[in-house]
Amino acid sequence: MNLHSMFRRSTFWRRLLRSVPALALTLSTGSLLIAEEPFEAWPRFRGANGEGIGAGVNLAPRPTLKNSLLWKLEFAGDGNGSPVAWGPNLYLQSAEENGKSRKLIAIDALKGTIAWEAALAGRSAKTHAKNSLASSTPACDEKGVYSVFWDGKSLHAAAHTHQGKELWVRELGTFKSQHGAGHSPVTFDGKIYINFDQDDKAELVCLDGANGKTIWLKERQAYRSSYSTPILRPLADGKSELVVASTAGATGYDPATGNLNWDAKIKHAKNALRVVSSPLIAGELLVFGGGDGSGERQMQAIRIGQSDGTPVWEDLKSFPYVPTGIVVGSLLFEISDKGFLGVYEVATGKSLSQTRLGGAFSASVVLAGNRLVLVSENGEVFFVEPKPNPDKPASLALNEPVFATPAIYKNRLYIKSRKTLFCLGQTNTAVPNGEER
């Protein structure tokens, strides 16, 4: 069965489309591309199934804050987690600067006003300089919003209705890592999945979205704390599998039972590297990799579904440690931590071009219609046409540090700095050629 037929017949996609009601999709070499309708949800880290692909954003050809900023909302707290969206609201997590509490915040996506806040427990704790005490991204479905938060000692999961009522809170266990926490949940078919990976222990946890009780738990090989967010993969029989990547390698699980479908152990080139970026599906390939602060990198593509971890291709130098790339057709776009935009043949790993954007990057790449959006740590937003040799990109400066990945919702672009949420779109100060009135 070809990929297009699998897409049309898959129970997985029917379930996903029920979660994202007005989604219109086309399939191109294993990557989901937007057709005509905008996403009606951005339900998890990097949107539907973590693909990072959204509808076009109404921006001037040469965006500036004057012609593109619809609103901005400043927070008293701090956090590197990304916004998600469902219905009228955006959701994000925040931590007070003294570390004594955490918050789940609901924001009206069009007005930029706070709809409600829910307090979560917290204490002060040490993190990496580029991390925060609120670096997790929530997940949503039609029944509510689900968050994972670190109170400074233990990792917890929580569920709230879209009106802010607490449904349940679960302690998952003590968390240990030299860098702090930043695990983001995934929801599918009424279940919540958390890749609970830490320095001396690794588990994949499945919770019941209705009550927070454990449905199943699978131990994984522990190395160094990884922060990769799982993705779901449609199978030819209409079922689906949960794909997880960490230092140990990549694994496919039955999302209903936790039964192992395949397990591809990574062959470490030198050291066992931390996996921060999330895996990408490109047709029959799974692209994933790791790195560390020393500059060591290991990115590879394997044939998905096979326990033989021998890579189809591998790169030990060029790929990022933290940001997740994106697949558009036959091309793979990656932004390195040091600000080089690399374009690769996804089938072979062959480098097609390298463009220096400037600055350091932690935020992952997203596609808004026909433009890649990349945001540097100093708050420079780049808009790049996704082609083998990109032209010099348009950009605008937010002038605030950004570590969170953008969200795309209702033809608007939402970017969170450490303390401010920016909403970008077409303002009435712009004229067709992009000049300001």
Descriptive overview:
With 437 residues, this protein is mainly β. It contains three helices and 36 strands. It has one domain: 7 Propeller (Methylamine Dehydrogenase, Chain H), CATH 2.130.10. Residues 1-39 and 429-437 have low confidence and may be disordered.
Keywords:
437 residues, mainly beta, Methylamine Dehydrogenase, Chain H, 5-stranded mixed β-sheet, 5% helix, disordered C terminus
Write a short abstract of this structure.
The protein is mainly beta and 437 residues long. It contains three helices and 36 strands. A hairpin with a 2-residue loop joins strand 22 and strand 23.
Text of the CATH class: Mainly Beta
Give the strand order of the largest sheet, numbering strands 1, 2, ... along the chain. 3-6-7-8-9
Domain module count: 1
CATH fold category name: Methylamine Dehydrogenase, Chain H
User: What is the radius of gyration computed over CA atoms, rounded to a whole number of angstroms?
Assistant: 20 Å
User: What characteristic shape results from the CA principal axes?
Assistant: globular
What separation lies between the terminal Cα atoms? 54 Å
Low-confidence stretches: 1-39, 429-437
Q: Whole-number average pLDDT?
A: 84
Helix % is under 10%
CATH homologous superfamily (4th level) name: YVTN repeat-like/Quinoprotein amine dehydrogenase
Q: What's the architecture in CATH terms?
A: 7 Propeller
Tally of individual helices? 3
**Range of strand content:** 35-45%
Largest sheet: 5 strands, antiparallel
Label the structural class: mainly beta
The strand count comes to 36
